[in-house]
Amino acid sequence: MWRLPPRWLRRVLLAPGVLLIVGFIPFVLLGAALLGGIASWLFPGHLRLARIVWMVAFYLLWDAVAVLALFGLWIGSGFGWGIHRPVFERAHFGLARVMLRIMFWQVRLTLRLDFEAERLVVDEVPDDTPVIVVSRHAGPGDSFILVDSLLNRSRRNPHIVLKDSLQWDPAIDILLNRLSSRFVTPHSHRRPGDAGGARPSESSRQSSGRGTRC
Fold first, then answer.
1. Residues 133 and 150 sit within 8 Å (Cβ to Cβ)
2. Where are the domains of the chain?
3. What are the residues whose beta carbons fall under 8 Å from the beta carbon of 160, sequence distance 6 or more?
4. Residue 69's closest CA among 94, 87, 86?
5. Helix (H, G, I), strand (E, B) or coil at 8
6. Residue 177 — pLDDT band, cuts 50, 70, 90?
7. Which residue(s) pair with 213 in the sheet?
8. Phi/psi at 184 (nearest 5 deg)?
9. I need a labelling partner for 62 at 20 to 30 A (CA). Which of 72, 108, 170, 182 fits?
10. Contacts of 63 (CB under 8 A, 6+ apart)
11. pLDDT digits (tens, 9 = 90+) for 11-68
């Protein structure tokens, strides 16, 4: 795995890169992805390659929309001046809720994914009591499911601990670095003397209410 570049370089190259990729994907490929997505809806259980192509194209578009929305919040906060104020923290959690709803709407439609939670213990905890949520990690998909459940079902504001390589994704990188998340660096990639986790953002010292660490 390549070493994660500095944050300023990720902002200058990766985030605009996603927008450029979405803007300049050949129309033929986009058309093929769209036709593949429509065909996969009509013929569930078949055309796996078409569904994969469509989901990759959709995720790139989804990521680009999230980056643009985050850029809008940055401008609205006074070009970053008030980005860690409670009102903008709530706005970022609200954006995460909407984006995850859109993602899982498409996942259910295209991949026929269905999951059911009979009982979430976190729902039985009083709203003003922070809780720690620990889950067995089986890939990025189940992490999205867990965070979506906490955000949209339990109406919690999860502060996530996750691997630092996920910052290669511009939307995840920008959003979670603005919230009180913690990116953990594997021991083999740490510089001598460095701690395992990235320094918490300023919002981690200001956030309050319905907090959840997962």
1. yes
2. 58-213
3. 147, 176, 181, 182, 213, 214
4. 94
5. helix
6. very high
7. 132, 159
8. -100, 130
9. 182
10. 18, 169, 170, 171
11. 777 777 777 676 666 555 666 666 666 666 666 555 676 777 778 878 888 998 999 9
